């Protein structure tokens, strides 16, 4: 049902973004990929999804502007690229703070401001941002990430109100822990910050948060993104949709 619609999915060379790109492609959308990675793997993804790819670093405004100009008219904007860093606040590297705010929050403002003119003209658009359970609640040692994701929740609500009368919806999806490289890579730092073993971090920090005791699968987020693009979701606007096994219900 997305034939003729073009979707830009940021951070789609891995994890959640790739699953969302696959799900939207499955419904007929034309896909623009973004993200870093091995050149031949990215070429393989472009072939699989009949997609184009931008290697723009979204911490850099001028690279975002170039990506948006080259991508053309975007009907579905999936702001998904993100990164994490785990450290006590007094040791939190200042450059990591700046990088996380730039990528996890500011980039979504820039892509939205550049995508909205076409969406308004078309009278239809979807802006979906991968927020996090950390847009609703906090965990220690994640100051930049939690601040950025709370910011995404606020930006989403504002976009929803501004654009509602133009047939454009803005929502965010807030997963709990999804088994992707982003989660796997934070295990060593969490072991250090909390003095725990790898298994203890998985059981006592990660899955302890999720009452279902299961990691969310990237494909589940792809399916929700497809729903949010559908006609049936035309009145889902400004929502922060949790997919966290019940974590934030506590
Ligand atoms: P991931 O590390 O598997 O993928 C991140 C993607 O972003 C990759 O494609 C990477 O190349 C790209 N990327 C990284 N830095 C970039 C930059 N500067 N410019 C452009 N692209 C860049 O991570 P993931 O787990 O799939 O996370 C995707 C999103 O989901 C993030 O916003 C993350 O905060 C959010 N999220 C993840 C989880 C989880 O448990 N994995 C939970 C909640 C929210």
How does the major sheet shape up?
A: 7 strands, parallel
Query: Given the helix and strand composition, which structural class is it?
Result: alpha/beta
Low-confidence stretches: none
Q: Strand content of the residues, in percent? A: 5-15%
CATH C-level class is: Alpha Beta
Q: At CATH's second level, what is the architecture?
A: 3-Layer(aba) Sandwich
**Helix/strand order, N-terminal first:** EHEHEHEHEHEHHHE
Mean pLDDT: 97
Please give the domain count.
1
Q: Terminal Cα separation, in Å? A: 37 Å
CATH superfamily: NAD(P)-binding Rossmann-like Domain
Percent of residues in helices comes to 40-55%
From the spread of the alpha carbons, the general shape counts as globular
**Overall number of strands:** 7
CATH topology title: Rossmann fold
User: How many H/I helical runs?
Assistant: 8
Bound molecules: nicotinamide-adenine-dinucleotide
Question: What's the Cα radius of gyration?
Answer: 17 Å
Neighbour order of strands in the largest sheet: 3-2-1-4-5-6-7
Molecular structure report:
Keywords: Oxidoreductase. One of its GO terms (molecular function) is 3-hydroxybutyrate dehydrogenase activity. It is an enzyme of class 1 (oxidoreductase). This protein has 250 residues and is an alpha/beta fold. The chain is built from 8 helices and 7 strands. A 7-stranded parallel sheet has the order 3-2-1-4-5-6-7, sandwiched between helices. The chain starts with 5 loop residues before the first strand and ends in a 7-residue tail after the last strand. Bound molecules: nicotinamide-adenine-dinucleotide. Nicotinamide-adenine-dinucleotide is lined by residues 11-17, 34-37, 57-59, 80-83, 103-104, 130, 132, 175, 177-178, 180-183.
